[in-house]
Specification:
- The protein is mainly alpha-helical and about 50 residues long.
- It has a domain of about 30 residues.
- It contains one helix and no strands.
- The radius of gyration is 26 Å and the shape is rod-shaped.
- The protein starts with 18 loop residues before the first helix and ends with a helix.
Length: about 50
């Protein structure tokens, strides 16, 4: 009969929303959106009128 090791530590994971993580993700994606808007504005204002 095999022996079971009863000293195994079980890692408990709690699902938490870390507000700083949420805020940094929001800032990151809003920066992506702002950069995209600036690129589109540049294309519409300077590149497309040349055609």
């Amino acid at each position: 009969m095999s022996e079971r090791n009863e000293d195994i530590e079980i890692e408990k994971r709690e699902k938490k929303t870390d507000s700083s993580k949420v805020a940094s993700t929001f800032i990151k994606y809003s920066a992506y959106i702002i950069i995209l808007i600036i690129i589109l504005w540049f294309l519409v204002s300077y590149i497309f009128p040349m055609f």
